[in-house]
Amino acid sequence: MAQGGIVRVWGMVVVSAVAMVAVLAATGEQAMALQTWDRVVFSEIYYYVPGFDAHNEYVEIENTGGTVAFLDGAVISDEGDDGMPEPIFRFPGRQGELNHPIWPGERMVLARDAVVGELTPDLSGADWEFVHPSDDNDNPDVPNIIHCGGYDQDLALANGGDGILLATGADTTTSVDCWTVVDGVNWDGVSDPVPIGYAACSDAAPAPGVPQGNCLGRCPGGIDHNGSSAEDWFMMIPSPGEVNIPSHPSDCSSPVEDVSWGRLKALYRGGQSTRRQSPTSSR
Q1: Top-level class of domain 31-276
Q2: What are the sequence ranges of the domains in the chain?
Q3: Does the N terminus or the C terminus of the chain have fewer Cβ atoms within 10 A?
Q4: pTM for the predicted model, two decimal places
C-alpha cells in the first residue's frame, strides 16, 4: 500500500515515486497509470449486510493481470448512464503518478467505513476507505478515497439493485464516460446500470441479487468475459482480502482458461516469458 509518497513492495519500504520506478525497472515491470485494458477488476461486492449496513459495505478489487497498475487519480462510482446523481470518489494523486500500485495477484479491500471493532467482518484493516467530509466515520489509520463529485454523500450501495464502476480518472463528471471505464458490475433491479468495461458500455444482464449476509463475487481468478454481469458474478460467502468462496461450489466448478493482458503483452516482448512459463499457467 502507498501513502504519503511511501510505498511497500514485498516487505521493503520504498520512498518516493522515483524510487518506485527504479524498483519496477529492476524487476522488469513497466510503470504505467491505470489503463482501460488493465486486468484490475472488482472481485467482491458486499452490499446487503445484516443490521445497519451503511458502515459495513465494502468492495474488493484484484489485479488479475501480469503487470503492475497504478491507482493514482482513478475513480470509483455507482454513477450510471442516465446521470442519476450518485457520488464519485477518487484515489489520491493524479493520473500518471506512481504512488499507489496494485501488484499482479494483489487484492485490495475498499471499505465504506473502516469501522474499528463494531461490525463483522472487521474492516478496520481495509486497504482503503471511502470518505465524504461531512458524512463519514473516518478511520485515520486507513488511507482515503475522497469524494470528488456527483451526489453529495458517502458511498451507499442499494440492496434492491445498483452498480459500481472503476475508471481511469480521465473523466470525473457525471456520467463517467464509458471509454474511461476499466471494470464495472450491476446487480438485481438496477435502474441506472453502469458500463462494465470500456468495450461494454451496456450490460446485457445484471447479476441476480443475493440474500442478506451474502455478497456478490467473481469465481477465483477474477474471470471476466465482459459480456454481462450475470455471466461472471455469483453469490459468495464474504471473504474480504481472501480468495472468493462460492456459496454454491458448482457455480465455479468449470475452470475457464484465462490469459491475462499482461501475459499476452509479455509474449510480444521477445518471447522470454514464453520460455519461462506457459501463458495459461496459474497467476
Answers
A1: mainly beta
A2: 31-276
A3: N
A4: 0.80
